[in-house]
Amino acid sequence: MTWLAGCIVVSYYATLLALAIYGWHRYHLLYLFYRHAPKRPRPPATLEPLPPLTVQLPIYNERYVVDRLIRAACALDYPADRLEIQILDDSTDDTTRIAAEVAEEMRRLGHDVRHLRRGHRRGFKAGALAEGLAQARGELVAVFDADFVPAPSFLLDLVHYFSDPRVGMVQARWGHLNREYSVLTRIQSIFLDGHFVIEHAARHRAGRFFNFNGTAGIWRRACIESAGGWQSDTLTEDLDLSYRGQLEGWEFVFLPEVVAPAELPADMDSFKTQQHRWTLGSIQTGVKILPRLLRARLPLKVKMEAMFHLTNNSAYALMVLLAILIVPAVVARRALGLDQLMYFDLPLFLMSTLSISTFYLCAQRELRDDWPSTLAYLPFLMSLGIGLSLNNARAVCAALRGGRTEFLRTPKHCLEGTSGDWRRSAYRGFGRRAWTAAEMLLGVYFTGVSAWAIITGHYTALPFFLLFQMGYLYTSFLSLAQAARRRLRPVSSLSLPGTPKKRLDAGTGPA
Length: 511
Fold this sequence. Notes:
By secondary structure, the protein is of the alpha/beta class.
């Protein structure tokens, strides 16, 4: 069985090395960010007169936030004769009634608001955006998801960058309406801040490709159409169109100083649903786009960064593989008399983990004067990242298998600050208890393995074991605890205008 032990050891170090490479890439993004920090974009000119602009609001069963969304869109500062607002409503509950009433009220106040209903839901959000675009009169198109609350100045902050005819899209940074709601929402805010503040800024300023995030941005209509329009063959239609647009030669702009706040998922099941969809869609987009991108006449540095970007979520599958291999590898390494290899574990481990902590700390340092307080959340951040690995590895495998995939949206509950109660909402995330149980079992397994490592003196592997233990126990326990607490909180009739007291499925549809 020496050959089997050798295969296990080789597979283990190959997996650990691959994770270390993705960790190194985070350091590379930090290098690009600081090297190109002075390159802050400025509009080359002021557009005069302002072009016609369409605001698209794709919604699906959003009774708690649709009123706020429509009113925020109508409050946008832009010439009324050049602003059109489309409510792209695929809802199956009383969201449609609420949206129709608010739209009528806004029309009486002089706003050009159109409430569009499809006779089908093909293509989900991408299909709704495409159908709305066919009826839009704007040269520019802004998109806001249901939980976003753009400031009145949002359009004017972005629109003048389109004075450069090469610009096809301008993206703003996401803010967080309910950052302080819980530990979970604080960790999510740190994750998203890292994505926008470091990743987007580094890629944009260094001349690499970056992506529209599905909301809080403005597109040039000509860019959408020349790139082939909105397509629904992936679950991340925004990422897909972004790459197709840039491959057509359009330039994108990221403005970190313009912030559009939105709601973060407050419960673990909704967060897992969101992360599963984003992971699945990004790998689908990679499978679709990478062959074309690698054939394109682009600088090698652009291609390399795009490869890391579009395959980054495969690290979750590598993490699960590492969890499977790590204990057999420790045993096999000792059986083969290769204990000296353990000295490679620590640097590879540090490359994989410290890069994550450094990356997110740097993002917080750019945003907040109290950034050292983020240190207290790093253990939770690391635990959540590892705990999500099984959930997201499933998404990676589903994307590589191909075939039809379901669009599971993220429920919104109108949570702001520390107020609001998602447990009494009619909408909920899609928790799969079998997979939650699998996460719990992995946590228990690594608890036992950690004890074994202490007893037998395998101290070099102990940090790995403890990280996996904390990660899987944290995510599984939070999922189960929140589900139990929700069952004790009946749906409130006050929170469900015009709807019986019953569970409404979170459903599938636009995010």
